[in-house]
Amino acid sequence: MRFSKKILPLLLVASLLTSACRRSTTLALSYRSLPTAGWNRADTLCFPFDSVEQSGYYALQIALRTAAARPYPFTSLTLRVDVELGDSAFTDTLTLPLADAHGAPEGSGVAHRQTTFPARRLALRSGQRGRIVVRHLMEQTPLRGLESLGVELAAADAR
């Protein structure tokens, strides 16, 4: 009986240490605040990443935060997303739905809403560097009602 009382805490500590030592599958997760006065169409948001540890496929996602205090006046947002990998480059145009058919905002949160959108899968090599550049393609400039925009680049098999 005494043996099991000593082993149980040791097993618990070992499992916690093992889970804490797992490598992160997220290569990049970063947000950029947008000006309260509005996001100008010519302004770009740049998200560099480097030192890819392991070759493989990575999923790129765009995350958007809005604030209830300054509502976004449109039901969607159109973005240009450039992925520059040194030896190659890709450009995507994404239209992100920010409200449902009845005009209710999408995403989760109360005072701040966050919505994440899948963008593209990238094949990256070990040691590769690059950057992701985002700009809006909306006619209104400056574009008001957006709080911050972020990108997440994570191993595709982790999701």
Q: Which of globular, elongated, flat, extended, rod-shaped describes the shape?
A: globular
Structural class: mainly beta
Order of helices and strands: HEEEEEEEE
Mean pLDDT, to the nearest integer, reads 80
Using the CA coordinates, give the radius of gyration. 20 Å
- CATH hierarchy, class: Mainly Beta
If helices are DSSP runs of H or I spanning 4 or more residues, what is the number of helices? 1
How many domain units? Answer: 1
CATH fold-level topology: Jelly Rolls
End-to-end Cα distance: 42 Å
Strand content: over 45%
- Low-pLDDT residue spans: 10-24
Regarding quaternary structure, what we see is: single chain
- Identify the strand order in the major beta sheet: 1-8-3-6
Beta-strand segment tally: 8
CATH level-two architecture: Sandwich
Q: Helicity level, as a percent range? A: 10-25%
Largest sheet: 4 strands, antiparallel
